[in-house]
């Protein structure tokens, strides 16, 4: 007996009731509690895309999700999956747990699969909040998929002593989007990362 393969939802018209309600609640929280603002997303309406953003607080992925009408699947630190509530929320975006203590090849292969399915992958290239080192996973995924890179920048938000304190502290974050970047599959990793980080910096 052949099993039926269910494709993950992508555009808003495909979302489940749970995904729609979570998106509404998230948008309301950011708009009315956090006083957040965001520009119109430049993520393509269809097809694979790599959404790359700076990382200043745990509000960043929430802003990216709320500002898009497509599901954004993130590479997320594995420790967040240890929290049952967080795990349920992350599973609604088909996010991928990743180990930060070493190069997680399995996570990168799963990320490539997201792009092969023509979906949106969200990445914070610093690998953590307010880190200065950038990782080259973005360049590898560009080479493997030829997907456009969409730069984004979050300003006006800060990480508190804990995630809970950050969610409760009222801030006024601003999310800005840049023009999608298109690279040749053979582009050098330094070229991809340099152009991407420069595009993010110009949005500050």
What structural class do helix, strand and pairing data support?
A: alpha/beta
Widest β-sheet, arrangement of strands: 1-7-6-2-5-3-4
CATH architecture: 3-Layer(aba) Sandwich
Radius of gyration: 16 Å
Spans of 5+ residues with little confidence (pLDDT < 50)? none
Domain Phospholipid/glycerol acyltransferase: 49-157
GO molecular function: 1-acylglycerol-3-phosphate O-acyltransferase activity
Keywords: Acyltransferase, Transferase
Protein name: 1-acyl-sn-glycerol-3-phosphate acyltransferase
3D structure, described in words:
- By secondary structure, this protein is an alpha/beta fold.
- It has one domain (17-203): Glycerol-3-phosphate (1)-acyltransferase (3-Layer(aba) Sandwich), CATH 3.40.1130.
- It has helices at 17-33, 59-66, 84-91, 105-116, 137-145, 163-168, 189-202; strands spanning 37-38, 49-53, 72-77, 96-98, 120-123, 149-155, 174-177.
- A seven-stranded mixed sheet has the order 1-7-6-2-5-3-4, sandwiched between helices.
- Helix 1 packs across helix 2 (59-66) and helix 5 (137-145) crosses helix 7.
- The model has no long low-confidence stretch (mean pLDDT 91).
